[in-house]
Please model this.
Amino acid sequence: MSPAFSYSIAVFVIIFIAGCSVNLLRQHYIFQLIGIAFFFTYMVINSAIIVENTASVSFQQLFYSSLPSLFGMSACLICLALGVWIFPSIRNKFKD
Model:
């Protein structure tokens, strides 16, 4: 397992746990959309810096450099889906 992949799994787990805790808020989707936008922007800027600084960059280098951002975006999307389908009943239990 490459270090980029293990780091990406760690990013996924941390963002997933944080996203599940954010799901307890009423307007959780705003924070998760901001997270997705942040990871996308970071991925684009990081890829642009790598392409600018490296004379011949391969697709594998770009993929491994954007892998943590992709895992972070997927964790945000999974938590967003959980917040829409599963967490409303949990929020109602805390509300009562």
